Amino acid sequence: ANISEGFNPRQDAPLPEFNFRFRLPTVVTTPTPPSSKRMLAFFAGGIHGSIRKFLFEQWEGKDPQIQIFQRLPRRQSYKEHMMNAKYCICPSGYEVASPRLTESILAGCVPVPISDGYVLPFSDVLDWSQFSVPIPVQKIPKLKEILINIPEHSYLKLQANVMKVQKHFVINYPPKRFDVVHMLFHSIWLRRLNV
């Protein structure tokens, strides 16, 4: 879903990316209450592409509130880190899309997509400004400043909206109303209307 690579949002449907390594992704059944989240922002992943390289150069090991890891220390849980962060950083890697976007939503963490030219999944139906904080690549050095300056009441609204949109990023078998399968069909149907 990269506009710079010829993606056309009027005819192409941006799809969420999933990581199926272990099992179907699911919603965290007991999310951490917003008042109990201990860290401001979290990301763990490889240095794939220039955006992540820039993120690591700016933030890896530099601020205890912005937890950036190439590899999590032993016996630390990726899912728990996501659940205990207010914001989950979702930078593009070699490709514009990342499963971290879906993982953060399912963990009840406000996603922070960092990319240029990325058309977010289901953006024809979902207003991403209501449940995420998209940041352009050049603003990576101001990441903490941007997140800290979001008032608490605004964060709580973003986080509550993350919980509302979770159902749209869940894979059910068989599919259920409003789940990712229905959202995919809806996105494709909308594009057929634009032909």
TrEMBL record:
Report how it sits in the membrane: Single-pass type II membrane protein
For whether the record's keyword set contains Transmembrane, the answer is yes
What is the protein's major site of localization?
A: Golgi
Q: Can you tell which superkingdom this protein's organism belongs to?
A: Eukaryota
Record has Transcription as a keyword: no
Q: Where in the cell is it found?
A: Golgi apparatus membrane
Q: Under the cellular component aspect of Gene Ontology, which terms does the record hold?
A: Golgi membrane
* Pfam families per the UniProt record, alphabetical: Exostosin_GT47
InterPro entries for the chain: Exostosin (IPR004263), Exostosin_GT47 (IPR040911)
Exostosin GT47 domain location is: 3-147
What are the recorded GO MF terms, alphabetically?
Answer: glycosyltransferase activity
Record key words, sorted: Glycosyltransferase, Golgi apparatus, Signal-anchor, Transferase, Transmembrane
The text of the family note is: Belongs to the glycosyltransferase 47 family.
Q: What's the protein called, per UniProt?
A: Exostosin GT47 domain-containing protein
